[in-house]
Predict the structure of tRNA (adenine(58)-N(1))-methyltransferase TrmI.
Amino acid sequence: MTDQQATADPTVSDPAAYSGVRTGPLQPGERVTITDPKGRRHSLLLSPGQRFHTAKGAIEHDDLIGGPEGVVVTSVGGVQYLALRPLLGEFTVGMPRGAQVVYPKDAAQIVVGADIFPGARVLEAGAGSGALSLALLRAIGPTGRLTSYERREDFARIAAKNVRNFLGTEHPAWDLRLGDLATALGDGEGADPGAPTEIDRVVLDMLAPWECVDVIADRLVPGGVICCYVATTTQLGRITETLRVHGGFTEPQAEESMIRGWHVEGLSIRPSHQMVGHTGFLLTSRRLAPGVTAPARKRRPAPGAYGEDYTGPRPTTAPTGDGAGTQP
Ligand SMILES: C[S@@+](CC[C@H](N)C(=O)[O-])C[C@H]1O[C@@H](n2cnc3c(N)ncnc32)[C@H](O)[C@@H]1O
């Protein structure tokens, strides 16, 4: 490869290509977050000659353009603002949204829990507002493939715009497709001929992921990971039991994460008074080889776990009688 080719191919010449990360002097068209002394943030799209008006007077964009980030600008009214390019997590919680976004703490957990790697072929649904898509795209890089299904056209449009706004360009590895995932991957009416046939990792953030287990099992490579992010315990139970009943997956692992901020100031070192108490649950499982079924679990279900009030999918090892959970 010649030097010229290396420069023309951003996947080779620039390791940060398509990450949305920029360094160097601030340029027109770039987004900058300014933060006042009380921690209030505003997002600016830098444009020569423009002013951003605050309650304490205007800030000239030209005072920022051409200079480094991490500077302090002062409004006409004398208030100081710290200016920085937004990090990915900051951008996703502040960007316009149709659907509720995956929070940065969960996006981080999904990237590792689903074992997303550079070059991976990842299937995602639904794209929602594109927050998780951005985290997945950063993890797979330009040599991977992220196919994201979204069944609502208005949400797909928002996701596409958010991703483009953060990256400043289209991502060569992203294929955003409009449609219902189960229908698109099925073989009936509405099947998508452009759907990926082999998938390394699946990440589902949608209302009813259990409806997609069969079609995903057909395309997920042996050892591939399915990761479902659900908001409620009823969804968690349903997707867990559906994966168990399918039989072609490892025992699903469920978890959630809570992050508590800390106040650190002199001798006053204590947990923050406020925290986000609940976002969602994460369920991960791995695809077994074709024709292989998971070994029967040795552990007995808890007494009453599959009692008469239980109406969901029923693993073959679950008791069908009075639900006392005493059968092996
Ligand atoms: C909670 S939002 C996803 C948010 C997204 N992960 C983000 O971080 O911005 C759930 C999305 O799934 C979409 N959805 C639900 N069921 C779907 C299906 N069967 N196929 C495709 N999209 C679906 C919804 O329209 C909605 O936009």
Remarks:
- Confidence is low (pLDDT under 50) at residues 1-8, 321-328.
- The first helix runs from residue 3 to 8.
